[in-house]
Amino acid sequence: MWIADKYIQYVKDQTIQHPGETWDKILLGFKANKLRTRLLPKKNLSKGYQKVETMMMSLVADSLGKQNSYIWGNIFAPCEIVQCFGVNTLSIETLSCYFSGYHLEDYFIDYAQNEGIAPTLCSYHKTFVGAIDSGAVPVPKYAATTSLSCDGNLNTFRYLEKKKGVPFTFLDVPYGDDADSVDYLAEQLKQFAKELEKRFEVKFDIGKLREALRIENETRKELVRFFDLQSRHYYPGELISHLYMMMGMHLKIGTREFLELIQFMNREIQTYPKFEGKKILWIHLLPFYQESLQQYFNGSQDYQIIASDIILDYMEELDVERPFHALSRKIIHNLYNGSYSHKAEMVERLADRLRPDAVIQFCHWGCKQSSGGSVLLKERMQDRGIPMLILDGDGIDRRNSHDGQIKTRLEAFLEMLQTKGEESVIC
User: Fold this and answer.
1) DSSP 36-79
2) Which tens digit of pLDDT belongs to each residue from 32-44?
């Protein structure tokens, strides 16, 4: 791996010195990592998680390597509509994570702030803005974002339009779930499809959208089944494996490729032994780089993340006969939309089904939504007798996460779980 580390450091140094001249080197690294995941997958991972990593690396490398094959979006932009035009959606949040693979997030964040971006803006957004403003990353012909769930979405995409001329569609998501609200967003989605027709000069086929939603319904059922199985079987993965799963459920949902992957994982997981350790339900973002969390969760037979709310943030079946209204309901009913009590209720349903031994919520610095409601969720979990740990940190900026503090709090919490388990055995 020293060759990869050397290349990462080389690209970082070159980008800092000549940010407008290193895109080919950045892209080469993405393509090389795509080949690495196919030819030399991580041996400590299950084949299913190996395949997830390969699929997500391919999505990013292949899209970025082909002009006009993708649009920018936020993680909740309706990729199902975009895919009808043969185009992928690349969310700015996940792209920031990929730039972080070169350890460039601190440089891009500082660059954005030096350009006048507020320090309080989400670090995922600052990383992306800095990457674009510095000239390190080329721009696509179009973008789309929802108001769900981050306050910074509209301002970030407006800024990118002003600075780099990237036009975008803004989907205003209402909090209410009444018929008028659903109609309001459904009409925006129809206009979005018409705009994509003009941008990419491809006629919209509503039959493709209906088929995508049919596949999506099947995929979601398979994913719930996978979570059930993962609560019973040991299935070796890494912290970042759950980030890749989140990408799949938001950027590849509705594709047969992703459905068949989840079906494969459901078959494979049943060949693994019963899981005897502590089962963790993860809430919100996954700080994939954080060393102490990696130490306890990567390939562990003692502690296993069995599900994450951001992977399964919508649980209802979509009406394929009314696809725009179905997607409207999906976005409005997302657990990250509306009051935090709505999210807490959906997490409660997931906990009732999977019966985790504990819940961990990671409160990403700058995300008011996660920090503000964490105490409410903790009270709901306490009512069910489920211990909950709230960790504060940053999902991408290593400078805002203090590993020592996280390690101390995590170890104390896990020790408490073990003690609780031993007491129940004695009783």
Assistant:
1) HHHHS--TTS-HHHHHHHHHHHHHHHHHHTSTTSEEEE-TTS-H
2) 999 999 999 999 9
